[in-house]
Design a protein that fits this description.
Blueprint lengths: L2 E3 L1 E4 L3 H12 L4 E5 L14 E3 L4 H5 L6 H11 L6 H21 L6 E2 L9 E3 L2 H14 L3 E5 L2 E7 L5 E8 L2 E7 L3 E3 L8 H7 L7 E2 L8 H7 L5 E2 L7 E4 L19 E4 L12 H8 L7 E6 H4 L11 H6 L4 E3 L2 H8 L3 H17 L25 E10 L5 E2 L6 E3 L5 E7 L16 H19 L5
Helix pairs in contact: 1-5, 1-13, 3-4, 4-13, 11-12
Length: about 450
């Protein structure tokens, strides 16, 4: 027997659960379909940051920030390729969404300076806590039904041309569920689809594949069938900072370069300005001989360790045996098999430039984006971590408007179809600001539900 809901949400990560919680709070009857055996998706693999401005955590630390500065940073990092209306919508809704998440029980622990931020605004969460909290809130309303291991196969229109039904499989059986106010796609990207990556990002063939196992682009295909347009595919990039073992059960990574480390190749030479987006660093890293690169730093930078942080807990990586440590640069060079004289020369030249006030070779003047001052690398012991690029998330996909309505090639909304989270393109543009992925998932997940529930329906 077919069942009808107010909203059907495809995918139970950050975007889907925020949409479900928002809709449930408005009294809507919601069906959430998740094809994996557990909720969370790629949100559980994230670096734990959400980008918000003017929060209580920032004020407690004396950090001066503003919504406008956040918006400006997003546009700058995106190199002006972002859809401005989406960035403005993020700005208009970011603070209220932060408060909404706190009210729902999501815990924010601290604020860090991370990629693309002019000031520290990377608000750290524990993804599993956030996901489970949003899920529990949604189901406790009594308005939300969640079906796991339920794979959506096709979307269907009604006689008026509106997307109004999904065909899904569960336990080997096929079902149809109908929606009278909208279907929201929050099913993630395609970081695990070799087919789509080969078509749209062949330059990333050498990157590790570590995204959520369900991220094969099926949601994008569902929308394509009904005329959806796509955005940002030319800007697909990998994420730099992962240890080569990250394609195993542990996704170990570190961004020591945002605390002052330099990045070198197997010839012991720098090849990039380490303060730029780790996406852009990743693009350059894949061009290096054999794709081999290292982060190199000293004891002073090691003191910037942040216990428990996904990107800055260097001591934990050291304990896991993923970092090489030596009392001299020559000894370090031997451990990581790079030319000794060249490593010493690279570090010496870098130190001289920093002391003189500028990096002559690559123009580095900050730690990350416009924040912080570079540091010399001169106090033993010295450290290095072999670092590679991974396809963690695709950050490109369906074109949407500021109301999270999916658009066709003529920029017209496809009736009844909405999208939020990683499946969406047009937001990030040519670069990526840390924390904006989970941030946009929460913000636009809620916007999608709000828009759908306000949409005038023809029955």
């Amino acid at each position: 027997m077919e069942k009808t809901y107010n909203l059907i949400i495809v995918g139970a990560g950050m975007a889907g659960l925020c949409a479900a919680a928002e809709a449930a709070a408005q009294g809507a009857k919601v069906l959430v379909l998740e094809k994996e055996e557990e909720i969370g998706g790629s949100s559980l693999l994230s670096g734990r940051f959400m980008a918000f401005a003017e929060t209580d955590l920032q004020k407690k630390e004396g950090i001066q920030d503003s919504t406008q500065l956040l918006v400006d940073d997003l546009l700058t990092v995106g190199q002006g390729k972002n859809e401005v209306s989406l960035i403005e919508a993020y700005g208009e809704n970011q603070y209220e969404t932060y408060q909404w998440l706190v009210q729902k029980g999501v815990q924010f622990h601290a604020v860090q300076a991370v990629s693309g931020h002019s000031v520290p605004r990377g608000h750290t969460i524990t993804p599993s806590q956030a996901i489970s909290t949003l899920y529990q809130y949604a189901v406790d309303t009594g308005n939300v039904t969640v079906e796991l291991e339920a794979s959506v196969k096709r979307l269907r229109k009604n006689s008026e041309g509106r997307i109004s039904a999904v065909i899904f499989e569960k336990n080997g059986l096929e079902y149809i569920a109908k929606s009278d106010q909208g279907i929201i796609l929050t099913s993630g990207g395609f970081s695990r689809s070799e087919e789509l990556l080969e078509h749209f990002a062949p330059q990333l063939k050498g990157a590790l594949r570590i995204g959520g196992k369900g991220n094969v682009g099926d949601g994008i295909k569902l929308a394509w069938e009904h005329g959806a347009w796509v955005r940002d595919l030319p800007y697909l990039q990998g994420t730099y900072g992962f240890h080569p073992t990250a394609d195993g059960p542990r996704k170990n990574q570190a961004h020591v370069f945002y605390k002052g480390a330099i990045v070198i190749n197997k010839q012991a030479k720098r090849f990039v300005n380490e303060s730029i987006s780790y996406k852009l660093i990743g693009t350059e890293a894949l061009k290096q001989p054999e794709g081999i690169t290292y982060q190199v730093w000293d004891q002073e930078i090691m003191k910037e360790n942040v216990p428990g942080d996904a990107l800055y807990d260097f001591e934990k990586l050291n304990e896991l045996g993923l970092i090489d440590k030596a009392n001299s640069l020559e000894e370090l060079a031997e451990l990581i098999s790079v030319p000794k004289a060249q490593l010493v020369q690279t570090v010496d030249e870098y130190n001289q430039d920093i002391l003189a006030g500028g990096d002559k070779e690559f123009g580095r003047t900050t730690l990350t984006h416009t924040f912080g001052k570079p540091k010399t690398i001169c106090r033993a012991p010295f450290y290095a971590m072999r670092t590679t690029v991974a396809m963690l998330a695709t950050y490109a996909g369906l074109a949407v408007n500021e109301g999270a309505q999916v658009l066709n090639p003529f920029h017209e909304p496809i009736p009844g179809l909405f999208a939020a989270g990683e499946i969406v393109g047009g937001f990030h543009g040519a670069g990526y600001m840390t924390g904006s992925s989970l941030g946009k998932a929460a913000i636009f997940g809620r916007i999608a539900a709000q828009t759908a529930l306000k949409t005038e329906i023809t029955l």
